[in-house]
Structures
1.
Amino acid sequence: MVKVRAARPAEAEDLTALVMRSKAHWGYDAAFLAACAPELRIRAEDVAARRVVVAENGRGEVLGVASLEGTAPRAELGLLFVEPSAVGQGVGRLLYRDVLRRAVELGVRRLVIDSDPHAAGFYRAMGAVAVVAAPAPEAGGTALVRFAAAPVPLADWARAWTGGGRAVHLGNVGEFNAQFADATLDREQRPAHHYACLAAFYSPHPAALVLPRPVPRGWTELVCRQLGWTGVEVYDGLLDADPGLADAVRARPALAAQLTGAGLPLVPWGRTRQFGRLAGLPWRPEELRYESKSAAHGLFGRILADGGHPRIVLPRQWRVDGRWAAARMLAARTRAGESTVVKSEHGVGGSGTTVLTPARVRAAGGAWAVLRRLPRGPLLVEEYVGFAASGAGEGPRDLTYDGFVDEAGHAHEVGGAVMEVADGCYRGATVGPGVVPAWAEKSLTAFGTAVGRELADSGYRGWFDVDFVADGAGRLAPTETNLRLTGPSIAFMVAARLDALRGAGHLVRIVDRVELGARLPEAQLDELCAALVRGCAELGAVFVPAIPTGAFEPAPWLGVLVAARSGEVLDAAEALVRAEAREVGAMFGPS
């Protein structure tokens, strides 16, 4: 195993030789290397002054060297060279990340890198941003490429979420859904077991993943490499059909003791009675009452009664007794030319939510014909918030606020995100600086914070979000709360990790489903993901496969995360992923 340690003054001569071998690796001639030598020399007295470190393998062999030079708030990556025989083994990546970590500790906020042109691709892949070409100090050499990075510590909210350390992630998505016994949720929880793969991202740095279904080993290795994780234990295949993952862990006393006895936070998708037994936490089912869409609507109304949120509007909502009553109300609204939202009391990802325009109702054969096709169970009828983009309201239609309540009852703000929603169904979300438009940010944050305080006072502990739709006039309408982790929360976790790992400013998009068009064996899935990592890196983006197990379904798909520092690059990365997925489908033929 390769580790980083401080260099020793007595090593200065040997380190200089390593630097020169590494420089020669790019094919420079002897005259050019001789001209470079004074600039690249490491003297014994420089080792401490230039903060020189080395990467060393288990046999004590030095494989690379790096230096962090200057003082806060601006510093330089003076050296980063790898022994030619170790190139491509992750040594440079390890050294660069160590420099970024130390820069954060020193209070550095801008790290400047003058890169050899041959190494420019490496720094770009590490997240540094090209600034200008700088004149090379070496006589007769090619101009260096100047990069800059913005070292930042892990976000305050992320440190508060798991105490800034590692955590055990429990993929109990099916277990959480099952406690509501809603007709819109699959009884076998097959989709939920796919979404349990998101357990990889429940915090910025997991110690262990506990999953109901087997996952490809190549997937976990790639995710760890992309996000700089080491030592992540994976416990998968714990369930055949029953959605009770926490009970499956408790049925294995040695595993339960290992996971709960390490002193690490145990993070679930959402709280359940079974999780409470496993974690030794009190179970209060009333904590989850605002998972109910009607209860959440009542909560929103109470908050708005205070009059402190002028840019928030609440759509009217009615709970109807039976399908005939719902049909009569829907028919009346259709005759009046009004669109309507019909909801189940619970549901995930938009399941159980249907938007019905008058044209759609008529095309289906009337209100009763529409309602007969919806899942059984209690229904809510809600006023549809229309969207006529104009003025300040131009922009995204669906937004969300994420936060959490810690065990002490303090509500923490995480941030806002823009969701992609089609016909009431969630398709993905984007987080990052500037994603939420300025006209919406203040009112979204203020209302989300108010909901967080109310949840804390009600006894709830854990992650939550508040979903909104925009009305096109600069106002937001809250539609529901989710008292669990969600797709946007996963994007926030990954953004926090990438910012700490690569420098500030990442936009992260989680894409719920990328259709593959062909079922893939594990080896071909690994090849596709490796190709997407390379292709996105060439664009200046990061690709992380989020849900791999859908690739083995009869109608195969893949959940993905892409990250970049601009919306244009983010869009290009998503387009690349979808195009490559289609190409794979064409190559392997129909499922």
2.
Amino acid sequence: MKNTPKRKQRNKPGVVLFTAVAVMLMLSILLTATVSFVSVNRTKTNDNYKSKQAYLTASSTLESFINQIQTDTAPTNDPTAKAQQKKAIDNLKKLASANSGKGTTTNVSYNGSNGKSDNIGTTKITVAQEGTSVANIVVTCETTYLGKTEKVAAHISTQSVTKPAEYTNTIELVGNGGAGYDNLNVIGDMAGINNTTGKVYRFTNNTSIYGSYLMYGSLEVSTQPLIMLKPSLVDEKQGSTVTISENLDVSNEFHINSTMARADGYNYVNIGQKLSTSNHMDVGSSGFDVDLFCCEANIGGNDYTQYGNFYVYKGAGAYNGDATFGAAGQTINGSLYVEGDLNVTKSLKVTGSVYVTGTITGKDKIVCTASNIHEGAVLSKAGRDAKPQIPVSADAYVYYPEDFFMSNDTNVTTISDQYQAFYDGSNTKTFNTFASDWTNVDYTLTELIDLTGTGAKTPVTSRYKLRITSSCTWASDLSFNDYGNGSRILVDVSDSSGDIVIRLQNGLNLGAEWSPVIVVRNRSTIIDTTTGDRKYNCYFVSDSGSAITLNGIDSVTGKSQHSGSSACNYSFKGLKVFDYDTYVRMFDSSVLNNTKGNPGLPQSGFVLNRTSVDVAGSYRPKNSSIIFLFGENTTLNATDQSFFQGSFYSPQAIVNIATSGLGGLVVTDSAGGKMTVQCCAVGVVIANSFGNANTAFYVYTKPSTTSVMQNAKGGKDDSAFGYTLDRYDHY
């Protein structure tokens, strides 16, 4: 076997991951391999030319097989495409495993530009197993031209990789019950992902969401909430959306606006059933259109004002696409589309056109150019007028904290050994254990840090009452005299510590007199080259016990099943948890040099950047390596200016962060706009039920891609099927 220098240069090993390959495409390539080649000079018949032509034909055919797959496919989240993707790989394996692994051989013909067969040799393409596993495949092209034969091969490793979890919601509710929000403010997206019918969510007292909103159920609005559509967290060149699977009932002032001009695919409100208003509602603003879709509309009470198109299309059951407009003042700065009947009882101004499939009652009350009113119209429902789809279900969770605690599968968890060590007696360390070691008490850390983002590093000193360097239990055994009154506790993650797992002793209850300040420093040197995240993380876990039984994956839901998880209850007042790199930038030396006390407001000039792009004059933290894992029936109550910089994965737990949080935090968006907020959490909060109080904000940042949270979603419906192109060979 040999590799020509030319082949080595042109075909370096690389990963080719394709996610939308149709079965027929694969068969088409294998069975016809229709490619075009440069014309050849048939007058040359020397052996060198014959070998070169045979080699070019074979290698071009093989590259056509590889390159066409890459060119004609693209990443997708579409379930149909994912299914085709899996079938394509299964089909390739079937061809390779035929004839006891010797594979499938097909003769290839070449068509010229005139449609006739070009005489540039005969080629056989073979797809076969390499070795004993069908996961390893070799594709061989063998061409004979005027008596000379050349053979090339591509060595492929097929793979089925669990799709990493994507977290785009600042707050995500997993439970099947409704919820009420009082003064909840979210910078980022929010969702209620359990598709249980009949749930009712309520927004009161100036609740605001600066992002997208997706919920299964109905939304009732009673006291002046705001949804400000911000750029998508997936693609910041796009806007965002509001999706409500059932009804929207507005009994008091409600505003849905956007910071971006509308374009196809975003800036819309999609209501699965009925929209009812009895008080003021605004949708969109001048220059920032927001379209609205519903299946029935009853606009009444006071003003309704919209910049964008209003669509009322038929829906399931009794929703016939009818609309009634009877508000005291109502203006649509756009066009109105009604698939059923339209009833106008008070003056309705429409700056665009009115299209009604059924009948119009009260046509004389429509303030619109007469020629722009169309009764008995046919609606195209295409392009901008197409109703967005409400997904049947959200991206479901497969694994739960209990799996991370107890599973022996390293593809699921990396922390089960540390967790189970708390219960088998091999790890009896508590915070007090470290307090008994003078090297961890009154700990001073000085480190060179780039505070300005210019590359210039300056020494920064921070001091801590206690340092934690390995997994342990946070129990009620610390001396209050030594560790009360806002003691700073450093959790120091390193290569030698590995993942640090901190078990919260069940019943841990710390009043405001304790108000601990936890700072997590992560200096593990093994870095994910794709995301830049460090390998090891810090986990705060519930004391859910060792009697947990993992009962396998449910064949219907595709979710892990478990039992035996102990209930836990925690109460903290004034608890603050920071990432070290944020902490040393957020506060000045007067705070960093103290080992106790409330750190107070962030220093003047500190701006937190929660977006995925750099913004001048701001600090953008890396994905959070601080993870809270709370098992089933766990309840967390955090009050009195508590603050969390980290991510909660608690899909079967209750998280109540009823606190005014950290004051004076300045946050920025990708355009450089700034807000000063009272902040309760920076991260994501995923819970069965979530409670809040007071006017405080929750700010989005992603969890670390190296944490176990990346395995929470995925499974049978979310695998990325593809192959690794290991190398080319010329025989």
3.
Amino acid sequence: MKHMNSEVKEERTSNKKRIDLFLVPIVLIAAFLNLFKIWTDEYANAYYTAAVKSMLQSFHNFFYASFDPGGYVTIDKPPVVFWIQTISAKIFGFHGWSVILPQALAGIGSVLLLYVLIKRTFGVWAGRFAALAMALTPIVPAVSRTNNIDSMLVFTLLLSTWMLFRAVRTVKFGWVLASFAMIGVAFNMKMLQAYMVLPAFYVFYVVATKITWKKKIAFLTTATALMLAVSVSWAVVVDSTSADKRPYMGSSQTNSVLELAFGYNGINRLTGNTSVTGSSHKQPAQTEQQTASSETKQNSNSSADSSQSSNQRKSSFSQKMQAPGGGNQNGMFNTGNPGPFRLFQKGLSDQISWLLPFVIFSIVGLFAGVKFKGPYTAKQKESLFWLAWLLPVAVFFSIAGFFHQYYLIMLAPPIAAFAGAGAVALWSMYKQHNDWKSWLLPGGILTTAALQVYIMSPYVSSIGVAPIAGVGALGVILALVLAIRKQRKNSLTNYLGAAAMVVLLAMPAYWAMTPIIYGGNSMLPSAGPDSSSGMGGPPSTATNSKQSGFNGMQPPGSSSGNSSSNNQMQSPSGSSNGGQMPGGSSNNGQMQPPSGSSNSGQMQMPGGSSNNSQMPNSFSSKSSSSKRKSGGMNAEVNQKLLNYLTKNNTGEKYLFATTDSTSAAPYIIKTGKPVMAMGGFSGSDPILTVSKLKAMIKKGEVKYFYLSGMGKGGQSDVITWIKENSKEIPSSKWQSTLSSAQQGPSGNGTLYEITLK
């Protein structure tokens, strides 16, 4: 801390060194948080892992990001991140860790990039603090330890930021083009989410570049055109390709990438309107809603008290799955209710908001004395960039109707940037001024400690009282002592300032380690003592804070013999009332299937209408083996079913067909053989018609169908036809039995065979 007042001198000295020795432990911390034990996650997010398995098999599958080896349907995102994952799997072999590795390295790379970005203007100490804050932001390692897209997206946007800063410093048009082109690449990772940073790019370039307005407009217009061209390049190729020569675009309703980009993955995220028109009636476009429903926790440790635990789970589920604004303090998927203080609510605050009060005080300090007409210093210009990144993204998450907790990683760079730059700036003001600005440092420490106590308070049963009381007491004491010792330039004051930073980062550091300590969830990553659940809420809302969502659910064809219908929830329906998911309604806060059928308290996939329909594979986050299988759709297969299908395959292209990707993914990962998810990820994609299916059967492409009553969606006519024209295979030939400890919350599916002449 004592070196903060000589920022320029420190920076010049640091620039002469090849390695900043203070940066080394920060990078090692980031490496530990992002990489340690990723090798225990055997299949990661199985939906995406199955796609990588398929993409390894042909360039056709690789280019289109096909979910299945047969090229039937794609995954619900653009392909760039999955191209990288496939290349990693090609180099290192197909493993859970090899598909996670690119994201883990991207998380580490983001820490390094932020250090470089902040150090040059704000000083080496600011860069170090920013890098450390980025590394310790809990949601950053939680996401980076999975094969989800967001970690790579943030790294790409930070790389684009580096290019933009270089464009401003060098006044070279080429760097502007490169920067905006990189945003176009990011669009091909997660579509419109990449554009959330555009306000910052435009504002910064206009304010910071010393060229004429005519050139600014011309350069930005050209760069934007290039960005748009890069953004839609893959989409245009796919959409202009004949539908019979490529896979169906998964989770779209019109087989179009552009519709997916600007609809479900675009505007609908803001509005929360996830109802789309299916083949015959409205169905929920539930790729990620479905996922979250599938990840809800369940305790199946004992059949003796199943009734009691069922009621507890039912109450907890109903509470969690209400839509935003529905009166539940945790909101849908534990993302809180829309409003100006949403980022301080449970479920979000412990993922991203630990340092927000300090950031607010930092913003005040960094912009103190700034005049609207300028001139602006380099620090003020770059502070404006980070503010223009922070505010629009924060506003989006404050009002958005539908997102998941791990999307909050988009806020990590500006928060970490302000934490680093602000620490130096507030320290300088504290040491050099005697006006109101000298109070910003103690005030920031005090309010941040208070917020951290508030964040931790729901977790007292998991972490105990000591850390909460410790952060609160130390925060108050250090803030008061610093306030009393203002302007005293001695080593004790320096140590007090350093101690305050340690206190404010202590609990974020612990939270960042929770995916390692308690186990992570690759489908819906979050941090906290219940990180393995994928619901990211306080343990008081779950029956077992260390247990994964849907522990013990069976693979296709598994029988438990003790199925509880009361502990299940239902997917959105078009009828009834109560706290519903967007696009659907429910009775008593419970979600119902699109078909409109209702069984009290059950959860089913779209179209599920029976309380005997099973989730077709294990969702256990912790397996008895040394490998974790935490993807939400684990590669747990029923070996007896697999043996039967393999033995009786007479040359059919598809091993079997099923309603949705949940059933298909484990078998694709296990065998590398084509398995048809007839309705795409959630089972609601209008891909098949009866006539198309008849043609496929006549060609000998598929003859076995595993139906669990889930994922009916827009394919109800197809499923009805299958049942009416098939032969049911006796369960004794293919069904295995699981022990009571592995019982899932529902009954069994059915295997059908159809052969047409």
